[in-house]
Amino acid sequence: MELLKIAEDSGLEVIVGGRIGREEYSSVHGSIAALDRFVVAILMHATTQPVPNDPLVENPSCDYSV
Q: Domain range for residue 8?
């Protein structure tokens, strides 16, 4: 999932703030309406796509309770 692309497509402004080594740091700005569209897009994506490297998907018998 390309989180920043979903943010931009939702109407949020993504600003690259800097880079340290291989890590890139960004800020996201926008209206509450754009944030609402972003949340809906993430929820829709989450319900249609499997989560990679999810320990519960890889091993459903694992007990992660605290």
A: 3-52
